[in-house]
Amino acid sequence: MGILKSAWTIWMRLDALAETAEYNRLHGRLENGIQICTNGAKLDIEEIKMDLSWCTNYSAEQIESFMNREFSLKWNRIIDEVMKFNPTSFELNYMFLHLCLHDAGKKYQGKILEATEKLLGVLADNLHTYYSNKMRMINYSGRIAQMMKINRMIEMELRDRREKNSLANVFNLYKIEYSHPEMFDLM
């Protein structure tokens, strides 16, 4: 359950990232700040206006200054890398699983870390088999390096979000409580 709680927001982010990169690759780059959020729905990050008075005692201007307005710049860099890499669905799944399992292992330690390390070993073996047998690649180290570069970029963005959420908690930015707050630490 810990792995699932840790993974769901990461999955949402990687899914939107991959869908945006694929759209840009096939149809040309979306305008700056516009991202695919799910099933082809487009969202202009810079133009979002929401009434957050139900969940905070701070003004909209204060919340907006706290929110990550550099979001589109960071994600556009990652989208560019994903577009250049053009991962197969197998590679994209590997990237997702690697991100989630690595994150859950770091977060929960102990038995979960042991389990995630074993699963990461199985994933690495499966990736080797995929490249060797299905793709018939002898030298695939460049593809693995590119996947890990993209994952590190995503991990940095996720870490920034966690730090912001920690600050939000310190300053009681939000007046709502979650039954499972760890599922919302990357929102």
TrEMBL record:
Keywords: Receptor, Transcription, Transcription regulation
Highest taxon listed in the record's lineage: Eukaryota
Position of the signal peptide: none
Key word Transcription present: yes
Coiled-coil region list: none
Annotated ranges, domain NR LBD: 1-187
PROSITE patterns: NR_LBD
The protein's name: NR LBD domain-containing protein
GN (gene name): Cnig_chr_V.g17826
